[in-house]
Amino acid sequence: MSHTEMIVFVCSDAVGETADAVARATLRQFSNQNVKIKRFSNIRDEDEIQAIVEEATKNQVFIVYTLVLPELREMMKKETARKNVRSVDIMGPMMQAYIDTFNDSPKRAAGLLHTLDEDYYRRVDAVEFAVKCDDGKDTNGLLHANIVLIGISRTSKTPLSIYMAYKGLKVANFPLVPEVKPPAELFKLPPQKIFGLVIDPHKMLKIREIRLQSAGLPPNAKYASLQRISEELEFAADIMRQLRCPVIDVTDKAIEETAEYIISRYLEGREQHGA
After folding, report:
1. Which residues lie below 8 Å from residue 227, measured CB to CB, with a gap of 6+?
2. 17 class by beta-carbon count within 10 Å (0-12 exposed, 13-18 middle, 19+ buried)
3. Residue 13, C-beta contacts closer than 8 angstroms, at least 6 positions apart
4. Which residues of the chain have pLDDT under 50?
5. What is the pTM of this model?
6. Residue 167 and residue 266: Cα distance in Å, rounded?
7. What torsion, rounded to 10 degrees, do the Cα atoms 107, 112, 113, 119 define?
């Protein structure tokens, strides 16, 4: 039996972010980390679909697609059936349900989800802000952030900042290290804007050992010792108590789960304080 790659083809007549997000959310539910995603964006004609389906027959593939234009959607459906390639239509059933329920017709224009509107530019600004204010690089940015994340190294501060930036929120983060005094700006913020991140020390030990290994550094470095991690966590806990901020245990939590919880708490705090 010859070895074949396991791939999910993501196809769209726009950017393909919707289908890509659904595919990635699905893959996270399975332990096999060797499945790849290959995206085909801005599909415009039936020849492209034929070529994609033909390529899919050469590997262990299924196709996920969001094709707004009905002729392309029908072509994908027929070609995958003819070539015996499994496919999943993400948008078609939803559009049909809307038509049947509300007796309305779709605009049939690809890429409407990503129209360059005010919301789009707000997300771009938020991402630029997150990069500028990552890892304490711009402490003045703390005063202009919607949300500020604090915690010891490797508590997912950066990926959380970027994830929430894509939601349009300006997020800054600052690493808590015993040898570095937290900036004065941090203590000027209202507690509901700050979120402290903590983690089980044994879980952190494994994360840092892997980090050292990937960086080609010796595994017995102080950075990856249980004693050092415990000292950092105690220091961080003291700062969080001083700030009176919410504290979240990120042990074994997905980025999305933590981010949605933080966003929910942030919005609640904004409503309560009228900010």
Report:
1. none
2. middle
3. 42, 43, 44, 66, 67, 68, 69, 72, 110, 111
4. 1-2, 113, 116
5. 0.61
6. 13
7. -120
